[in-house]
């Protein structure tokens, strides 16, 4: 009898500790919490029946600009205060390095995307890529973008002159324009047959979800090919790919990229190479 009583007590303690105590996380910090959290599911129960963003607005109106919720047993802090958001996203951005992990395992290249990196690795990669988004570099890219737009307009005007009119599929046209800008700014390459819907590049860009891993492999292969071409030439330009390759060279020469880490870094130094082929292609 004593053993059964002890078993029941231990089981009750385990259930409380595992399923109920996590739902008191925000209480210990005095954070106002959205009512109705359930064990295991938190506030997710019935979410498929609701419009998520409208629900968030309703919660902000009821609970204020800062409150806690639970996704399952995971505590989530909702911040809708403009000044605090500015503090988190701009002033102290380098102190909030980690993003939530996806539920399913990510392919190795996708795991190395900047937004999925953690800790010191994220800090170094962010500081390596930041010069690409400087004021001067953005001005250079704006000229490339303008050139891409001019070419699109020229093609449209040419077709209009030939027939006296032309029909423009805006979704397809803007998609090809976007891809053209990315290819020129990131890789420094121009693809002549972008407006051909039968081209492999456009097919992989338009139907990435339908093609699944085939689409991912295609762009990985393209990134690897461009990277090898850049390395074989020996001379690097100012595109994003070149910026990463320069950082890779620096790391090989100096043995580290630690100087790219911010002064607020508190995590241990990384001993393994950061700018691997996998890391560069992922970006």
From TrEMBL:
Membrane topology: Peripheral membrane protein
GO molecular function: heme binding; iron ion binding; monooxygenase activity; oxidoreductase activity, acting on paired donors, with incorporation or reduction of molecular oxygen
Keyword list, A-Z: Endoplasmic reticulum, Heme, Iron, Membrane, Metal-binding, Microsome, Monooxygenase, Oxidoreductase
GO cellular component, one term: endoplasmic reticulum membrane
Subcellular location: Endoplasmic reticulum membrane; Microsome membrane
Pfam families listed in its UniProt record: p450
Obligatory cofactor(s): heme
Main localization of the protein described in the UniProt heading: endoplasmic reticulum
Family the entry assigns: Belongs to the cytochrome P450 family.
Protein name stated in the entry: Uncharacterized protein
Origin species: Cyprideis torosa
């Amino acid at each position: 009898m004593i053993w059964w009583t002890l078993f029941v007590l231990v089981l009750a303690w385990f259930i409380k500790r595992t399923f109920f105590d996590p739902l008191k996380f925000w209480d210990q910090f005095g954070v106002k919490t959205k009512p109705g959290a359930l064990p295991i599911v938190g506030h997710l129960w019935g979410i498929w029946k609701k419009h998520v963003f409208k629900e968030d607005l309703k919660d902000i109106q009821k609970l204020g600009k800062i409150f806690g919720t639970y996704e399952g047993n995971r505590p989530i802090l909702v911040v809708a205060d403009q000044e605090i958001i500015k503090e988190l996203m701009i002033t102290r951005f380098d102190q909030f390095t980690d993003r939530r992990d996806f539920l399913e395992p990510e392919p190795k290249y996708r795991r190395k995307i900047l937004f999925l990196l953690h800790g010191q690795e994220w800090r170094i990669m962010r500081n390596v890529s930041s010069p690409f988004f400087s004021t001067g570099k953005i001005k250079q890219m704006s000229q490339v973008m303008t050139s891409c737009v001019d070419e699109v307009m020229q093609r449209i005007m040419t077709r209009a002159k030939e027939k006296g009119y032309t029909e423009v599929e805006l979704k397809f046209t803007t998609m090809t324009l976007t891809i053209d800008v990315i290819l020129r700014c990131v890789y420094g390459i121009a693809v002549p047959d972008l407006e051909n819907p039968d081209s492999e590049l456009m097919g992989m860009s338009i139907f990435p979800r339908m093609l699944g891993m085939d689409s991912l492999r295609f762009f990985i292969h393209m990134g690897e090919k461009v990277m090898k071409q850049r390395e074989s030439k020996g001379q690097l330009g100012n595109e994003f790919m070149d910026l990463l390759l320069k950082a890779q060279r620096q790391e090989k020469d100096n043995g580290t990229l630690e100087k790219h880490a911010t002064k607020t870094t508190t995590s241990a130094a990384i001993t393994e190479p950061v700018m691997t082929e996998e890391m560069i292609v992922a970006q």
